[in-house]
Amino acid sequence: MSRVRTLLRHAGAVFACIALVWAFVSQAHAKVENDMVYLGAAISLTGKYSTNGAHTQRGYDLAIERINAEGGVIVDGKTYKLAIIYYDDESTPARGAQLAERLIQQDGVTFILGPYSSGLTRAMAPIIEKYGIPMVEANGASISLFEEGYKYLFAVLSTTEQYLQGAVALAAQTAGDGEGLRVALAMENDPFSQDVRTGVIADAEHHGMRVIIDDKLPPDLSDLAATLAKVRVLKPDLLVVSGHAKGAALAIRQIADGRVDVPMLALTHCDAAQIIEKFGEKAEYALCASQWAPGLSYSDPLFGSASDFATLFEETYGYAPPYQAAESAAAVMVFADAFERAGTFDTLAVRDALSATDLMTFYGRIDFDEAGRNIAKPMVLYQVQDGKFRVVYPAEFAEAPFRHPTPRWADR
To answer: Sign of the C-alpha dihedral, residues 163, 168, 169, 170?
Structure first.
Protein backbone atom coordinates (compact mmCIF):
# COMPACT_ATOMS: atom_id res chain seq x y z
CA MET A 1 0.00 0.00 0.00
CA SER A 2 2.83 2.35 0.80
CA ARG A 3 4.20 1.85 -2.71
CA VAL A 4 0.79 2.60 -4.23
CA ARG A 5 0.44 5.72 -2.12
CA THR A 6 3.92 6.80 -3.23
CA LEU A 7 3.05 6.27 -6.88
CA LEU A 8 -0.23 8.15 -6.47
CA ARG A 9 1.56 10.94 -4.70
CA HIS A 10 4.09 11.18 -7.55
CA ALA A 11 1.31 11.02 -10.13
CA GLY A 12 -0.53 13.79 -8.32
CA ALA A 13 2.57 15.95 -8.34
CA VAL A 14 3.03 15.32 -12.06
CA PHE A 15 -0.60 16.22 -12.82
CA ALA A 16 -0.28 19.34 -10.66
CA CYS A 17 2.80 20.39 -12.63
CA ILE A 18 0.99 19.71 -15.91
CA ALA A 19 -1.96 21.78 -14.71
CA LEU A 20 0.37 24.63 -13.72
CA VAL A 21 2.12 24.54 -17.08
CA TRP A 22 -1.24 24.38 -18.88
CA ALA A 23 -2.48 27.37 -16.89
CA PHE A 24 0.62 29.33 -17.84
CA VAL A 25 0.39 28.32 -21.50
CA SER A 26 -3.29 29.28 -21.62
CA GLN A 27 -2.34 32.75 -20.40
CA ALA A 28 0.07 33.14 -23.30
CA HIS A 29 -2.86 33.80 -25.64
CA ALA A 30 -4.46 37.22 -25.79
CA LYS A 31 -7.98 37.99 -24.64
CA VAL A 32 -9.69 37.97 -28.04
CA GLU A 33 -13.42 38.03 -28.61
CA ASN A 34 -14.37 37.71 -32.27
CA ASP A 35 -12.20 40.39 -33.89
CA MET A 36 -11.57 42.42 -30.69
CA VAL A 37 -8.28 42.27 -28.78
CA TYR A 38 -8.43 43.52 -25.19
CA LEU A 39 -5.65 45.36 -23.41
CA GLY A 40 -5.81 46.05 -19.68
CA ALA A 41 -5.13 49.21 -17.71
CA ALA A 42 -5.33 50.17 -14.04
CA ILE A 43 -5.15 53.95 -13.84
CA SER A 44 -5.85 56.68 -11.29
CA LEU A 45 -9.42 57.83 -11.85
CA THR A 46 -9.71 58.88 -8.19
CA GLY A 47 -7.19 59.91 -5.57
CA LYS A 48 -4.29 62.33 -5.73
CA TYR A 49 -3.25 61.33 -9.27
CA SER A 50 -6.74 61.57 -10.75
CA THR A 51 -5.95 64.62 -12.91
CA ASN A 52 -3.09 62.90 -14.67
CA GLY A 53 -4.99 59.62 -14.61
CA ALA A 54 -7.68 61.28 -16.71
CA HIS A 55 -5.05 62.59 -19.15
CA THR A 56 -3.63 59.07 -19.38
CA GLN A 57 -6.99 57.48 -20.12
CA ARG A 58 -7.83 60.06 -22.77
CA GLY A 59 -4.50 59.47 -24.50
CA TYR A 60 -5.16 55.72 -24.52
CA ASP A 61 -8.72 56.17 -25.76
CA LEU A 62 -7.81 58.58 -28.54
CA ALA A 63 -5.18 56.19 -29.90
CA ILE A 64 -7.59 53.24 -29.71
CA GLU A 65 -10.25 55.23 -31.57
CA ARG A 66 -7.78 56.36 -34.23
CA ILE A 67 -6.27 52.91 -34.79
CA ASN A 68 -9.71 51.30 -35.06
CA ALA A 69 -10.95 54.04 -37.40
CA GLU A 70 -7.98 53.32 -39.66
CA GLY A 71 -8.88 49.63 -39.83
CA GLY A 72 -7.31 48.21 -36.68
CA VAL A 73 -4.26 45.94 -36.66
CA ILE A 74 -3.48 43.11 -39.06
CA VAL A 75 -2.09 40.01 -37.36
CA ASP A 76 -1.36 36.89 -39.40
CA GLY A 77 -3.58 38.11 -42.22
CA LYS A 78 -6.61 38.88 -40.03
CA THR A 79 -7.83 42.32 -38.98
CA TYR A 80 -8.50 43.05 -35.30
CA LYS A 81 -9.83 46.05 -33.42
CA LEU A 82 -8.43 47.10 -30.03
CA ALA A 83 -10.24 47.75 -26.75
CA ILE A 84 -9.19 48.42 -23.15
CA ILE A 85 -10.50 46.98 -19.87
CA TYR A 86 -10.10 49.74 -17.26
CA TYR A 87 -9.98 49.72 -13.48
CA ASP A 88 -9.43 52.55 -11.01
CA ASP A 89 -6.28 52.03 -8.94
CA GLU A 90 -7.38 54.85 -6.61
CA SER A 91 -3.85 56.33 -6.79
CA THR A 92 -2.55 53.68 -4.38
CA PRO A 93 0.24 51.17 -5.18
CA ALA A 94 -1.37 48.29 -3.27
CA ARG A 95 -4.58 48.66 -5.26
CA GLY A 96 -2.59 48.86 -8.50
CA ALA A 97 -0.87 45.55 -7.73
CA GLN A 98 -4.22 43.91 -6.91
CA LEU A 99 -5.72 45.10 -10.17
CA ALA A 100 -2.76 43.84 -12.19
CA GLU A 101 -3.44 40.39 -10.72
CA ARG A 102 -7.14 40.76 -11.50
CA LEU A 103 -6.56 41.78 -15.10
CA ILE A 104 -4.30 38.81 -15.68
CA GLN A 105 -5.91 36.11 -13.54
CA GLN A 106 -9.62 36.95 -13.81
CA ASP A 107 -9.99 38.96 -17.01
CA GLY A 108 -7.47 36.97 -19.03
CA VAL A 109 -5.65 40.07 -20.26
CA THR A 110 -2.15 39.37 -21.59
CA PHE A 111 -1.11 42.88 -22.64
CA ILE A 112 -1.15 45.77 -20.17
CA LEU A 113 -0.90 49.53 -20.52
CA GLY A 114 0.85 51.21 -17.61
CA PRO A 115 -0.69 53.24 -14.79
CA TYR A 116 0.07 56.85 -13.94
CA SER A 117 3.17 57.55 -11.80
CA SER A 118 6.39 55.73 -11.02
CA GLY A 119 5.05 54.50 -7.70
CA LEU A 120 2.10 52.70 -9.27
CA THR A 121 4.29 51.33 -12.07
CA ARG A 122 6.73 50.01 -9.47
CA ALA A 123 3.87 48.20 -7.71
CA MET A 124 2.63 46.55 -10.91
CA ALA A 125 5.98 45.66 -12.50
CA PRO A 126 6.71 42.55 -10.38
CA ILE A 127 3.22 41.22 -11.16
CA ILE A 128 3.53 41.49 -14.92
CA GLU A 129 7.04 40.04 -14.70
CA LYS A 130 5.83 37.05 -12.64
CA TYR A 131 3.25 36.13 -15.26
CA GLY A 132 5.33 37.08 -18.31
CA ILE A 133 2.83 39.72 -19.45
CA PRO A 134 4.21 42.62 -21.52
CA MET A 135 3.45 46.11 -20.23
CA VAL A 136 4.06 49.27 -22.24
CA GLU A 137 3.94 52.22 -19.90
CA ALA A 138 3.97 55.95 -20.51
CA ASN A 139 3.93 57.56 -17.10
CA GLY A 140 6.47 55.83 -14.88
CA ALA A 141 9.75 57.63 -15.44
CA SER A 142 11.75 56.59 -12.37
CA ILE A 143 15.19 55.43 -13.47
CA SER A 144 15.19 52.81 -10.71
CA LEU A 145 12.37 50.96 -12.50
CA PHE A 146 14.87 50.01 -15.17
CA GLU A 147 17.56 48.80 -12.83
CA GLU A 148 15.64 45.72 -11.65
CA GLY A 149 16.24 43.54 -14.71
CA TYR A 150 12.61 43.39 -15.81
CA LYS A 151 12.12 41.77 -19.22
CA TYR A 152 8.46 42.64 -19.81
CA LEU A 153 8.45 46.35 -18.93
CA PHE A 154 8.81 48.95 -21.70
CA ALA A 155 8.58 52.74 -21.29
CA VAL A 156 8.04 55.24 -24.10
CA LEU A 157 9.02 58.28 -22.00
CA SER A 158 12.39 59.70 -20.96
CA THR A 159 13.55 58.68 -17.50
CA THR A 160 13.65 60.87 -14.40
CA GLU A 161 17.29 61.84 -14.29
CA GLN A 162 16.73 63.76 -17.54
CA TYR A 163 13.66 65.75 -16.42
CA LEU A 164 15.30 68.97 -15.25
CA GLN A 165 18.76 68.70 -16.77
CA GLY A 166 17.75 71.59 -19.01
CA ALA A 167 17.01 73.87 -16.04
CA VAL A 168 20.44 73.25 -14.54
CA ALA A 169 22.07 73.76 -17.95
CA LEU A 170 20.22 77.05 -18.49
CA ALA A 171 21.17 78.23 -15.01
CA ALA A 172 24.80 77.45 -15.77
CA GLN A 173 24.59 79.44 -19.00
CA THR A 174 23.38 82.52 -17.14
CA ALA A 175 26.55 82.51 -15.03
CA GLY A 176 29.06 81.51 -17.65
CA ASP A 177 29.75 78.05 -16.24
CA GLY A 178 27.48 77.80 -13.22
CA GLU A 179 30.31 77.82 -10.68
CA GLY A 180 29.04 78.97 -7.29
CA LEU A 181 25.34 79.21 -8.17
CA ARG A 182 23.01 78.25 -5.31
CA VAL A 183 20.23 75.72 -5.80
CA ALA A 184 17.16 75.01 -3.65
CA LEU A 185 15.25 71.73 -3.91
CA ALA A 186 11.70 70.99 -2.76
CA MET A 187 10.88 67.40 -3.74
CA GLU A 188 7.96 65.17 -2.87
CA ASN A 189 9.01 61.97 -1.15
CA ASP A 190 7.92 59.58 -3.89
CA PRO A 191 10.03 57.51 -6.35
CA PHE A 192 9.59 59.91 -9.25
CA SER A 193 10.49 63.14 -7.47
CA GLN A 194 13.35 61.63 -5.53
CA ASP A 195 14.88 60.37 -8.77
CA VAL A 196 14.47 63.86 -10.26
CA ARG A 197 16.28 65.16 -7.19
CA THR A 198 19.17 62.75 -7.75
CA GLY A 199 19.54 63.91 -11.35
CA VAL A 200 19.41 67.61 -10.45
CA ILE A 201 22.02 67.20 -7.70
CA ALA A 202 24.36 65.31 -10.03
CA ASP A 203 24.03 67.98 -12.73
CA ALA A 204 24.44 70.81 -10.21
CA GLU A 205 27.60 69.26 -8.82
CA HIS A 206 28.93 68.81 -12.34
CA HIS A 207 28.56 72.56 -12.90
CA GLY A 208 30.07 73.50 -9.54
CA MET A 209 26.77 74.66 -8.03
CA ARG A 210 25.89 74.39 -4.32
CA VAL A 211 22.65 72.88 -3.03
CA ILE A 212 21.67 75.12 -0.12
CA ILE A 213 18.12 73.84 0.48
CA ASP A 214 17.20 70.18 0.10
CA ASP A 215 13.66 69.62 1.41
CA LYS A 216 11.90 66.26 1.20
CA LEU A 217 8.15 66.91 1.16
CA PRO A 218 5.38 64.53 2.32
CA PRO A 219 3.36 62.64 -0.32
CA ASP A 220 0.20 64.48 0.75
CA LEU A 221 1.87 67.71 -0.32
CA SER A 222 -0.22 70.66 0.82
CA ASP A 223 2.14 73.42 1.97
CA LEU A 224 5.47 74.87 0.81
CA ALA A 225 5.61 77.61 3.43
CA ALA A 226 8.61 76.17 5.31
CA THR A 227 10.65 75.83 2.13
CA LEU A 228 9.70 79.29 0.89
CA ALA A 229 10.69 80.81 4.22
CA LYS A 230 14.18 79.41 3.67
CA VAL A 231 14.17 80.74 0.09
CA ARG A 232 13.49 84.27 1.38
CA VAL A 233 16.49 84.11 3.71
CA LEU A 234 19.03 82.13 1.66
CA LYS A 235 18.14 83.60 -1.77
CA PRO A 236 18.94 80.70 -4.13
CA ASP A 237 19.60 81.35 -7.81
CA LEU A 238 17.44 78.39 -8.83
CA LEU A 239 14.46 76.82 -7.06
CA VAL A 240 13.41 73.35 -8.27
CA VAL A 241 10.06 71.86 -7.23
CA SER A 242 8.79 68.36 -8.05
CA GLY A 243 5.45 67.22 -6.66
CA HIS A 244 3.33 66.19 -9.66
CA ALA A 245 0.41 68.43 -10.70
CA LYS A 246 -0.53 69.30 -7.13
CA GLY A 247 3.02 70.41 -6.32
CA ALA A 248 3.32 72.60 -9.42
CA ALA A 249 0.04 74.40 -8.68
CA LEU A 250 0.96 74.81 -5.02
CA ALA A 251 4.36 76.30 -5.88
CA ILE A 252 2.96 78.90 -8.29
CA ARG A 253 0.18 79.91 -5.90
CA GLN A 254 2.26 80.21 -2.73
CA ILE A 255 5.22 81.92 -4.42
CA ALA A 256 2.84 84.51 -5.90
CA ASP A 257 0.72 84.96 -2.80
CA GLY A 258 3.82 85.32 -0.63
CA ARG A 259 5.60 87.47 -3.24
CA VAL A 260 8.68 85.30 -2.88
CA ASP A 261 11.43 86.47 -5.23
CA VAL A 262 13.54 83.82 -6.95
CA PRO A 263 15.49 84.45 -10.19
CA MET A 264 14.65 81.07 -11.68
CA LEU A 265 11.89 78.56 -10.89
CA ALA A 266 11.79 75.10 -12.47
CA LEU A 267 8.90 72.65 -12.05
CA THR A 268 7.61 69.29 -13.17
CA HIS A 269 3.99 68.74 -14.32
CA CYS A 270 3.20 72.37 -15.18
CA ASP A 271 0.89 71.58 -18.07
CA ALA A 272 -1.00 68.89 -16.15
CA ALA A 273 -1.47 71.42 -13.35
CA GLN A 274 -2.79 73.97 -15.88
CA ILE A 275 -0.73 76.71 -14.28
CA ILE A 276 -1.42 79.18 -17.11
CA GLU A 277 -5.18 78.64 -17.08
CA LYS A 278 -5.42 78.71 -13.28
CA PHE A 279 -2.87 81.38 -12.35
CA GLY A 280 -2.42 83.63 -15.39
CA GLU A 281 0.37 86.18 -14.95
CA LYS A 282 1.47 84.59 -11.69
CA ALA A 283 2.89 81.69 -13.74
CA GLU A 284 5.03 83.91 -15.98
CA TYR A 285 8.74 82.95 -16.26
CA ALA A 286 8.24 79.48 -14.73
CA LEU A 287 10.30 76.75 -16.39
CA CYS A 288 8.52 73.48 -16.95
CA ALA A 289 9.91 70.05 -17.79
CA SER A 290 8.01 68.26 -20.55
CA GLN A 291 8.27 64.97 -22.37
CA TRP A 292 6.71 66.49 -25.48
CA ALA A 293 5.51 69.71 -27.10
CA PRO A 294 3.01 70.29 -29.94
CA GLY A 295 5.55 72.41 -31.83
CA LEU A 296 8.10 69.61 -32.19
CA SER A 297 8.86 68.34 -35.68
CA TYR A 298 7.71 64.73 -35.10
CA SER A 299 5.08 63.00 -37.24
CA ASP A 300 3.64 59.60 -38.17
CA PRO A 301 1.02 58.19 -40.58
CA LEU A 302 -1.61 57.65 -37.85
CA PHE A 303 -1.88 61.07 -36.18
CA GLY A 304 0.18 63.22 -38.53
CA SER A 305 2.37 65.83 -36.86
CA ALA A 306 2.70 66.66 -33.17
CA SER A 307 0.58 69.72 -33.91
CA ASP A 308 -2.07 67.58 -35.63
CA PHE A 309 -2.32 65.36 -32.55
CA ALA A 310 -2.70 68.44 -30.35
CA THR A 311 -5.50 69.77 -32.55
CA LEU A 312 -7.36 66.45 -32.59
CA PHE A 313 -7.03 66.03 -28.83
CA GLU A 314 -8.33 69.54 -28.16
CA GLU A 315 -11.25 69.07 -30.55
CA THR A 316 -12.10 65.79 -28.82
CA TYR A 317 -11.67 66.73 -25.16
CA GLY A 318 -11.87 70.52 -25.10
CA TYR A 319 -8.38 71.34 -23.84
CA ALA A 320 -4.80 71.28 -25.09
CA PRO A 321 -3.08 67.93 -24.51
CA PRO A 322 -0.55 67.71 -21.70
CA TYR A 323 2.39 65.46 -22.43
CA GLN A 324 0.87 62.70 -20.28
CA ALA A 325 -1.87 62.30 -22.89
CA ALA A 326 0.57 62.33 -25.79
CA GLU A 327 2.89 59.71 -24.33
CA SER A 328 -0.09 57.53 -23.39
CA ALA A 329 -1.33 57.58 -26.98
CA ALA A 330 2.17 56.62 -28.11
CA ALA A 331 2.15 53.59 -25.79
CA VAL A 332 -0.93 52.20 -27.57
CA MET A 333 0.77 52.79 -30.93
CA VAL A 334 3.77 50.78 -29.75
CA PHE A 335 1.57 47.79 -28.89
CA ALA A 336 -0.21 47.98 -32.25
CA ASP A 337 3.10 48.09 -34.08
CA ALA A 338 4.45 45.13 -32.09
CA PHE A 339 1.34 43.02 -32.73
CA GLU A 340 1.69 43.47 -36.47
CA ARG A 341 5.42 42.78 -36.52
CA ALA A 342 5.07 39.73 -34.28
CA GLY A 343 2.30 38.31 -36.52
CA THR A 344 0.78 36.66 -33.44
CA PHE A 345 -0.66 37.47 -30.03
CA ASP A 346 1.68 35.06 -28.27
CA THR A 347 3.05 37.02 -25.32
CA LEU A 348 6.68 35.99 -25.75
CA ALA A 349 6.64 36.81 -29.46
CA VAL A 350 5.06 40.20 -28.74
CA ARG A 351 7.62 40.85 -25.98
CA ASP A 352 10.40 40.14 -28.48
CA ALA A 353 8.76 42.45 -31.03
CA LEU A 354 8.50 45.19 -28.40
CA SER A 355 12.18 44.77 -27.60
CA ALA A 356 13.01 45.34 -31.28
CA THR A 357 10.83 48.47 -31.60
CA ASP A 358 12.18 51.33 -33.69
CA LEU A 359 9.16 53.51 -34.38
CA MET A 360 8.73 57.14 -35.32
CA THR A 361 5.60 58.72 -33.86
CA PHE A 362 4.10 62.20 -33.42
CA TYR A 363 5.51 61.94 -29.87
CA GLY A 364 9.05 61.22 -31.04
CA ARG A 365 11.13 58.20 -31.92
CA ILE A 366 10.77 55.11 -29.75
CA ASP A 367 13.68 52.70 -29.47
CA PHE A 368 14.05 50.56 -26.34
CA ASP A 369 17.37 49.58 -24.80
CA GLU A 370 17.89 46.24 -23.04
CA ALA A 371 16.35 47.61 -19.86
CA GLY A 372 13.16 48.73 -21.65
CA ARG A 373 13.89 52.47 -21.64
CA ASN A 374 13.26 54.68 -24.64
CA ILE A 375 16.69 55.98 -25.59
CA ALA A 376 15.66 57.92 -28.70
CA LYS A 377 13.69 60.94 -27.41
CA PRO A 378 14.99 63.97 -25.48
CA MET A 379 13.18 65.97 -22.79
CA VAL A 380 12.23 69.58 -23.52
CA LEU A 381 11.89 72.58 -21.24
CA TYR A 382 9.09 75.13 -21.56
CA GLN A 383 9.02 78.62 -20.17
CA VAL A 384 5.76 80.47 -19.58
CA GLN A 385 6.06 83.56 -21.76
CA ASP A 386 3.18 85.99 -22.33
CA GLY A 387 0.64 83.43 -21.23
CA LYS A 388 1.92 80.58 -23.41
CA PHE A 389 4.30 77.65 -23.06
CA ARG A 390 7.38 78.24 -25.23
CA VAL A 391 10.11 75.65 -25.69
CA VAL A 392 13.43 77.20 -24.62
CA TYR A 393 15.57 74.04 -24.29
CA PRO A 394 17.26 72.23 -25.99
CA ALA A 395 18.47 74.83 -28.44
CA GLU A 396 17.60 72.81 -31.55
CA PHE A 397 13.90 72.76 -30.55
CA ALA A 398 13.69 76.24 -28.99
CA GLU A 399 10.70 78.37 -30.00
CA ALA A 400 11.88 81.44 -28.06
CA PRO A 401 14.92 82.72 -26.13
CA PHE A 402 15.09 81.96 -22.41
CA ARG A 403 13.96 84.95 -20.32
CA HIS A 404 16.12 85.49 -17.22
CA PRO A 405 16.09 86.56 -14.47
CA THR A 406 12.50 86.51 -13.27
CA PRO A 407 11.65 90.11 -12.26
CA ARG A 408 11.07 90.85 -8.60
CA TRP A 409 7.38 90.99 -7.64
CA ALA A 410 7.75 94.67 -6.81
CA ASP A 411 8.82 95.36 -10.40
CA ARG A 412 6.12 93.39 -12.22
So the answer is: positive
